[in-house]
């Protein structure tokens, strides 16, 4: 006899990363949620946008509530502009490096990479210190800088001198001149602060897998510049470590954000997976309790997704909770599908057929909704068959 009972509506957790340059994680989650409700009207949908420390980290963390602020700080080119930061309900201050010295900032990247600095990240930290912040969450992905965090340190009061006693600008093109570092004027409130550096990168500062060699080219470092700028960061680190009496150049994460991770480590920061940190703050584990299904995704998924990216971390949390995970991304690398299937019970792209990237970006909300609806209909059919 056929069982005609209606299956229980599912509890669906939706925890995607942003579609970089197109939709925020919150917008992606909302579009997927609309698709789920179009297919299963009674579904309980729990939205938990996630990020891994790069672009979109502030938005993901602010989804849980808090105060968003616009502050004036320097971009990568040293020009003052407004940038967003956040104060969470628990008192944590959020700084997203990509929002201050990011690769997508046309004004900040108008100058060559050897002339960019992280001064603005230090500006943001000082202004948040002024507001009473003593716990910082600093996202390190998506930066356009390669200054070893010299700009951050300079903004906080560290001074760099050359052999003639002249002050050296905190830019990669100048750091080879540094022979002495004076950290006596560093903002004393930093010693009271707890800093969490968030990234999915574990590279050291220098060497073949360091900041310049691995990430420099995407920021504009030419092949001819790699060795020279790498030596410059090593020279800068030697001078800084002599002054501070500690070392961090070889620690995992020192190479994140062009060495901004190194400067934060030198200030005593704790280095954590960005996606794990965000997952904790947005209450992903609580959302997964009693859930039937997790949907996650990102702009494009490939083998790198499995190296600490937000969808992978979300899937691992779901696996521990006994919840199956579907990956719904803007694009899926076909060659990586076999690897991805080890962590996701299904991998889907939102693109229905050939078309331009521009059209896919413009239509992303509708594509997400339509794809999520079709996946939900499949899920519903399978659930009914199991009854």
Sequence stretches where pLDDT stays below 50 over 5 or more residues: none
Distance between the termini: 12 Å
- The CATH topology assignment of the largest domain is Glycerate kinase, domain 2
Tell me, what is the CATH class of the largest domain?
Alpha Beta
Shape: elongated
Structural class: alpha/beta
Mean pLDDT: 93
Largest sheet: 6 strands, mixed
Rg, rounded, reads 22 Å
CATH homology group of the largest domain: Glycerate kinase, domain 2
Oligomer: single chain
Number of domains: 2
- Discrete helix count: 14
Architecture of the largest domain, according to CATH?
Alpha-Beta Complex
Description:
- A 6-stranded mixed sheet has the order 3-4-5-6-9-10.
- It has helices at 25-39, 57-62, 97-101, 119-130, 150-155, 211-219, 223-244, 260-266, 274-282, 284-288, 310-320, 337-340, 357-362, 364-386, and strands spanning 11-14, 44-47, 66-74, 80-88, 93-96, 135-139, 159-161, 180-182, 194-199, 270-273, 293-296, 300-301, 325-329, 331-332, 346-349.
- 36% of the residues lie in helices and 18% in strands.
- It has 387 residues and is an alpha/beta fold.
- The model has no long low-confidence stretch (mean pLDDT 93).
- Helix 1 packs across helix 14.
- It has 2 domains: 11-48 and 283-386, Glycerate kinase, domain 1 (Rossmann fold), CATH 3.40.50; 57-275, Glycerate kinase, domain 2, CATH 3.90.1510.
- The chain is built from 14 helices and 15 strands.
- InterPro entries: Glyc_kinase_flavodox-like_fold, Glycerate_kinase, Glycerate_kinase_RE-like, Glycerate_kinase_sf.
- Pfam families: Gly_kinase.
- Belongs to the glycerate kinase type-1 family.
- Keywords: Kinase, Transferase.
- This is Glycerate 3-kinase.
């Amino acid at each position: 006899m056929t069982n005609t009972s209606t299956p229980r509506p599912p509890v669906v957790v939706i925890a995607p990363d942003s579609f970089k340059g197109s939709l925020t994680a919150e917008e992606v989650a909302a579009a997927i949620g609309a698709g789920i409700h179009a297919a299963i009207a009674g579904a309980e949908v729990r939205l938990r946008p996630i990020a891994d420390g790069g672009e979109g980290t502030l938005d993901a963390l602010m989804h849980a509530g808090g105060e968003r602020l616009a502050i004036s700080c320097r971009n990568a080119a040293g020009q003052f502009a407004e940038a967003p930061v956040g104060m969470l309900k628990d008192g944590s201050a959020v700084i997203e490096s990509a929002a201050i010295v990011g690769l997508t900032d046309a004004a900040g990247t108008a100058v060559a990479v050897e002339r960019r600095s992280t001064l603005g990240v230090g500006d943001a930290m000082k202004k948040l210190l002024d507001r009473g912040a003593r716990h910082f969450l600093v996202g390190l992905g998506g930066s356009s800088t390669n200054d070893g965090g010299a700009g951050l340190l300079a903004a906080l009061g560290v001074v760099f001198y050359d052999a003639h006693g002249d002050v050296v600008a905190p830019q990669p093109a100048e750091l080879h001149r540094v022979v002495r570092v004076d950290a006596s004027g560093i903002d004393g409130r930093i010693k009271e602060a707890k800093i969490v550096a968030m990234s999915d990168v574990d590279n050291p500062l220098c060497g073949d897998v360091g900041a310049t060699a691995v990430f420099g080219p995407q920021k504009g470092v030419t092949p001819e510049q790699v060795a020279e700028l790498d030596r410059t960061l090593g020279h800068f680190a030697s001078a800084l470590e002599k002054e501070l009496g500690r070392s961090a150049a070889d620690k995992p994460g020192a190479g994140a954000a062009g060495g901004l991770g190194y400067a934060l480590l030198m200030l005593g920061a704790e280095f954590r997976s960005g996606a794990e940190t965000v997952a904790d703050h947005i209450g992903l584990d609580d959302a997964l309790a009693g859930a039937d299904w997790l949907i996650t995704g990102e702009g494009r998924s490939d083998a790198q997704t499995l190296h600490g990216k937000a969808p992978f971390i979300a899937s691992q949390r779901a696996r521990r909770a006994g919840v199956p995970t579907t990956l719904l991304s803007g694009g899926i690398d076909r060659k990586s599908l076999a690897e991805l299937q080890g962590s996701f019970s299904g991998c889907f792209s939102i693109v229905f057929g050939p078309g331009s990237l521009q059209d896919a970006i413009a239509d992303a909300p509708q594509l997400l909704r339509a794809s999520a609806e079709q996946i939900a209909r499949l899920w519903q059919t399978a659930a009914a068959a199991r009854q």
